[in-house]
Amino acid sequence: MSPHPRLVRAVVTAAVAALPEQARKNLASELEFERFAAEDALVERIMAALTECEKVNEAAE
Description:
- The structure is a single chain.
- This protein is mainly alpha-helical.
- The protein has one domain (5-56).
- The chain is built from three helices and no strands.
- The longest helix is centred in the last third of the chain and has 29 residues, at 32-60.
């Protein structure tokens, strides 16, 4: 069973909100390598949060 879209949105929002200030600044950096690294780090945080959410969802079933 896939998670409800609102749950996914909440998990993604929490992952973004937990970003350190420097990572937020790097997302807007003019330096391409800093921006790409920050984007990759953000994706990793989101995927980790979604994976954890899925584990909790599976345990509840």
